Amino acid sequence: MLKQGDYPHLTADFIDGVITVYIPKSFVQHWDKNETIGFDGNDTSGLYILIEKDFQCLKPRHHEDESDLFPNPQSTLSSYD
Fold first, then answer.
1. Is 22 in contact with 43 (CB distance < 8 Å)?
2. Contact assessment for residue 45 and residue 38, using Cβ atoms and an 8 Å cutoff
3. What is the pLDDT of residues 35-56, one digit of tens each?
4. DSSP 3-state assignment of 55?
5. Calpha distance 63→14 (Å, rounded)
6. What pLDDT shows up at residue 48?
7. If you ran DSSP here, which 8-state letter would residue 34 be given?
8. How far is CA 47 from CA 27, 36, 52, 76, in A?
9. Of 12, 9, 10, nearest to 1 (Cα)?
């Protein structure tokens, strides 16, 4: 689970079988509209956290619904307009 908020840095916890990553608001502002692919950092325990956009495959997979994925930047049809 990803949660955005007034967090000073990336951090995560694992409680009752659920991983929650806490993301500073400044990291995700306009992330859905810009070309930033992801962000990373170490939390206070030293855990390395990497969050990246999920892109559509270059070759369609008919058994997968990719309608909620970002356009692949390597596709000639990709645009962040």
1. no
2. no
3. 787 889 998 889 999 988 777 6
4. strand
5. 32
6. 95
7. S
8. 18, 22, 16, 36
9. 12
